[in-house]
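Running log. JK asked me to keep both predictions on one page so they can be read side by side. First protein, sequence followed by its tokens:
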Amino acid sequence: MDTLAGFVAWLLMIFLQTCPANRLRAGEHFYFDLLPQNRRLVVIVTGNDVKHQVLTFECGMLPESGKELERTHLATMSWGKQKTVTSFKTETREELISKPLVLPDTRTKLLLGTDANYAFLPVKRPSKATPTKSVEGYTGKIGFAPASYSLDKDDIDISTDAELGLLNLTFTNAGETCGLQLVKIVLPPKRN
């Protein structure tokens, strides 16, 4: 897996942990700018079975040329008492989990991948994630709950919103910093 595919997988995994699962609707698109790579990633809610509390997602990088998403990852998540990932597939459709993965409460740890043992733990230092004042396509209040996590020499800072889920992420790996910032949301039309 190359670095850009890694960012797609990381975004999808963090989105699953921080999203307001009970409020997502099929057809919603969440666009993130990846800095400093100057690429745009999108998380798409491809399905929502409210009766069975199951969501499906597609996450990929908008193409520099052509129409197909690049480095696309797919996930299926059940929600209710707890969020559980039942499928997490790579761009080559390789399944990354052999059994359902119960997602942790982000107040206790944050997963960057599908290995439950490779968890970032919260730290008390203030978050460095960039605050966002507005997001295109969203008119509600943005109320941040910033948090910081650390594992060895790697750090993650996130800012989340009660309505939107993940807004910003700053990942520092061996001194190099990259960021994902939510910049646009496309909501499907409401049905009568």
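And the second, directly underneath as requested:
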Amino acid sequence: MAGILGKVFRKNQSTDSGSVSGFFSLGVTAIPKTFDTDELVVEGYVTGTIKRGMVVNISNFGDDHRKTYMASVIDIEVKQKQVHKASNCLVSVRISNPGELQIKPATLLFTDHITKSEQKESYLLALEEYYILKKKLLLREEEFNRMSITDLAETIRIYKEKHSSGNATSDKILNQFNSALAKKILQAEELYIVSNHDTGEPHMFSKLVNQYNDVYDCTQPKILLFTEAYLKEYESKYKRPVYDIIKFDKNDSADEVEDILGMYFYLNGVSGIHVLYDNVSLEAEQLVPKPDYSKIPENKVPIMNPELVKWMLLVGQLEKSTKDDKDIYLTLYKKYLHRALLKTKFLVPIKSGSPAPVISDNGNVQLTNELKANLATSIGKYEKESLRIYTDWKRLLTEYNSDWSAFVQPLSALIHEFDCAVNVTLYTASSYYVTEELYDEIINEIINE
């Protein structure tokens, strides 16, 4: 930021302290006081050396699309005593007013040669000092409104890692921050999500839990959401061929973020979101209420099978995964997948205009030759005719146009006549192929549990 503007600023500033070269970063830890429209006083811990006459950059590090402004250091105080320079201590600094920038807790002052990691360190120190140590996380609504998604998530993370006592009071305070974070996310103009390249859906993060004697279970999966402020950092961390970064913008609809997250929660079976970090999480219903179909006739309720889709996507992610304990994950995921398969009612594509399927007394369709001729069949993996079936309309409609409709059936009504290919789309990793032999194995597994 120095350049020509920097030279102009330097020519107009006092250099009675000698050279103003050097570098520092400072995160604001006190709300600035305004002496007049041209000057501000800010307080914070300076890392490096700040000198009177320096030209500095000022930016809100945690804001999306942050802009950087320039100001000059007019005076420095340490313990209420004016000094020409200060190093690695708490200072009060009078600067020229940068104008349009809204200075807030954790706003950064920094020189050109400070790295991004050094800027981030000062930003995090300021968040901790102001919101946790000074304010004890007890904020007014206007203070929450000033914070960005990144500010909130980082403050929650720092508190959990370094200060939380885990008692009821601590939980109550965190609930207020979580509510503010949920509100900010639903109002966001844009958000970024880590997607899985193989499944074409948001990557699902689940961890192993060692219950006892190497008997494992896994946590319910969440997806990872992050902000533009950390885009470069996350792009370097989540790369192809395993990951993609997807961005969605709020366009004309005020409910767009809620609609997108609701689809992930209630079609894909995602239990919630991680915001920047896995210890900063919101449950699905903290963001989007679960759909209530209690007053809708059963035949009008949308076909959704999130419990099955969840485990199918988790299995699909593992193909190129390098994670430790991959075999344990796969065994667990398939166990839950197989249980869900037996409970699921699938959409079976049928050509529009075909005779209506005849349903027998047990509720299963009668697979006549006429009906089979109008189904979405092909030669499967083992030379046996396979039938494409789908968990929901979203996935069916990616493959079939208005020339097709569908009827609903469980796997048990179809598997003895066809192999069943579940959710065949462009993303083959998100599908699952079931033979009659596998079906029988699943039945035996469940019987013998």
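Observation for JK regarding the second prediction: The radius of gyration is 29 Å.
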